[in-house]
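c-Myc-binding protein homolog
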Amino acid sequence: MGIYWVRVGSMQEKEAKKEAFRKYLESSGVLDALTKVLVALYEQSDKPSSAMEFIQQKLGGPTVAEYEKLRAEISDLQIRFNELSAAHQDKCRELEELKNSHAEGSSKQMIEEGVSKEDT
């Protein structure tokens, strides 16, 4: 008898979770949006070759082709970013080297000027 009550309780818990999720989908407008899209697909006299693409397009998402194009663009931009970042690091190193060589030159000049003042 105890096992029966556990199963009933478990089933009631699952049903309560399903009902809560259904209410969540309904209150957030998901059920309405999906219903409209599925009705539009059903009413199409010429069914699209890709039902998934039709649904994505109607829900506002990019098509598969648009998605692939965007992924390729992201890849190209990442490569360009890496190239520019490497060039920036090279220029920063060059700038540091120039600063260091200028500082060394200034130090030598100050030393030489100091020596020549002492000579007079």
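thats it. The mean pLDDT is 87. The CA atoms of residues 4 and 10 lie 10 Å apart. bye
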